[in-house]
């Protein structure tokens, strides 16, 4: 059995709750997490000209996988994935909704010891109809490889516990712990979530609520521990 520590973290472009852009704080929070795989949302280089994903990859020593959803001459914005485990394959899913901010997901197959693990990292939209369409697209993508152990994690922007997106995801993955992660100083909403299939992979889920994490971004990181059977999905 292999143990894998996962995290998902909306870094708010590196701007903390105090309104200051301090990339070093985000890197220090990631160091606190000690995670093997980290899904990042709101990775920003357009407004600042600062290569946030490159900086965080260098600071952590993890391999970066970019998943930008907005690109222009000044830079990009979107999702990122940092991984200690080598990626075997990477694709990017377009989850955009007409006349709304472009959205997407990173779909990566990783090698963990002698096993394969599929990680899908995403940041869904703000409107209910938008999220419903995006979850349907994700579920269709999962059906393309129903055998491989799979993780979905990211900022789902879904606070309606009885809403269809969460009900559909619970039906596919089974329910998982969902501690409140937003806003970071007084978390009320479980916007940031981690699911696994099979559900038995998921051993523990918790928020990372250190003093630094409470100020570095408007979201708290959510951290999970997986136990992966090396014989279940050989590479």
Automatic annotation (TrEMBL):
It comes from the Bacteria. The keyword Nuclease applies. Residues 7-219 form the Endonuclease/exonuclease/phosphatase domain. One of its GO terms (molecular function) is endonuclease activity. It holds the Pfam family Exo_endo_phos. Gene3D superfamilies: Endonuclease/exonuclease/phosphatase. Keywords: Endonuclease, Hydrolase, Nuclease. InterPro entries: Endo/exonu/phosph_ase_sf, Endo/exonuclease/phosphatase, GPI-anchor_lipid_remodeler. PANTHER family: CALCOFLUOR WHITE HYPERSENSITIVE PROTEIN PRECURSOR, ENDONUCLEASE_EXONUCLEASE_PHOSPHATASE DOMAIN-CONTAINING PROTEIN. This is Endonuclease/exonuclease/phosphatase family protein.
């Amino acid at each position: 059995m292999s143990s894998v520590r996962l995290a998902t973290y909306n870094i708010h472009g590196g701007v903390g709750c105090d309104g200051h852009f301090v990339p070093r704080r985000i890197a220090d929070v990631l160091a606190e997490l000690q995670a093997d795989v980290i899904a990042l949302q709101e990775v920003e280089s357009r407004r600042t000209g600062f290569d946030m994903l490159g900086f965080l990859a260098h600071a952590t020593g993890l391999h970066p996988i970019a998943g930008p959803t907005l690109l222009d001459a000044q830079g990009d914005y979107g999702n990122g994935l940092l991984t200690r485990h080598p990626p075997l394959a990477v694709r990017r899913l377009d989850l955009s909704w007409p006349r709304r901010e472009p959205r997407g997901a990173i779909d990566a197959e990783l090698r963990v010891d002698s096993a394969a693990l599929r990680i899908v990292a995403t940041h869904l939209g703000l409107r209910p109809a938008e999220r419903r369409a995006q979850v349907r697209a994700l579920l269709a993508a999962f059906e393309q490889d129903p055998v491989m152990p799979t993780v979905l994690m990211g900022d789902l922007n879904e606070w309606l516990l009885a809403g269809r997106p969460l009900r559909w995801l619970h039906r596919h993955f089974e329910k998982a712990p969902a501690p409140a992660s937003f806003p970071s100083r007084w978390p009320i909403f479980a916007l940031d979530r981690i699911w696994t299939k099979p559900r038995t992979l998921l051993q523990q889920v918790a928020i990372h609520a250190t003093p630094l994490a409470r100020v570095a971004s408007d979201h708290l990181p959510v951290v999970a521990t997986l136990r992966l059977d090396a014989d279940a999905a050989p590479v």
